[in-house]
Amino acid sequence: MELRQLEYFVAVVEEGGFTRAAQRERVAQPAVSAQIRRLEATVGQPLLIRASREVRLTQAGSALLPHARAALAAVRDARLAVDEVAGLVRGSVAIGTVTLHPFDVTRLIADFHSDYPDIEITLGTDNSDVLLAKLQDGGLDAAIVSIGVDEEPPALEYAVVTDEAIAAAVAVRHPLARRKTLTLTALCEHPLIVLPIGTGLRTRLDAACAAAGLRPRIAFEATSPLELAELAGHGLGVAIVPQSMAHQRADLSSVQLVPELRGRLVWAWRRDMASPAARLLCERARQMIGGG
């Protein structure tokens, strides 16, 4: 009894005939018929009743079918187990990140490389929109990106790294420095220092302003929140930054936006991820995020 015979037998049953089974297995119909006859000779019983318009199981065929399916499933599982090992030996993982985040990606990569030195790991940076697009089209295995608090990126899973308010940061001598809160309307009366379009912070700001019918006055764009803070510290405008960053700098004053804007940094990966190496790396990342 050969695996190929069992494959053809199951295909004939599931497809309801020899012609469709041959098409499914991508072989000529006589090859399927010949293998089924050999299988029947091996078991010593007819397995199929060949009618003009349909193929039905005999009693012996019905008895064999679940065992044939179990045997084929066991072979697939065995192959998958071998592929998993091979993937961890020879695999590759592509990671992307936004320019600034608190997650220790370098430690994650270093520890993983120590355990699996033959896995190739690539790391790149870009804005959140680009990284999310690359995740969804398979260009990346995982990425640290910014998403809204109510946003659920399609086809992706994620673990939250940070979830915090977005603040307006101004120099301590700025007229707004004495304010505790600032409406979006009042914010848009001042020159703003923001990240480029496509980044998480910018997307949150633009969406809120659009919903309120406002148009922000963009004075400067910079590629990193650190640069935003530096420009604001020199009195060049109001920087839109994570609240924690504004609180960390002595030369800046943090003003709460009303209504509150929030953003999340997440470690995201494809829901249908196939790479064994990428799955293992993502599991380690989740453990680090969760404090494991």
TrEMBL record:
SUPFAM superfamilies: Periplasmic binding protein-like II, Winged helix' DNA-binding domain
This protein's UniProt keywords: Activator, DNA-binding, Transcription, Transcription regulation
Cellular component annotations (GO), alphabetically ordered: protein-DNA complex
GO molecular function terms listed in the Swiss-Prot or TrEMBL record: DNA binding; DNA-binding transcription factor activity
Any single Pfam family the record assigns to this protein: LysR_substrate
Domain HTH lysR-type: 1-58
InterPro entries xref list: LysR_HTH_N, LysR_subst-bd, WH-like_DNA-bd_sf, WH_DNA-bd_sf
Entry similarity comment: Belongs to the LysR transcriptional regulatory family.
Functional summary from the UniProt entry: Required for the induction the katG gene for catalase. Involved in the response to hydrogen peroxide.
Protein name: Probable hydrogen peroxide-inducible genes activator
Species of the source: Mycolicibacterium hippocampi
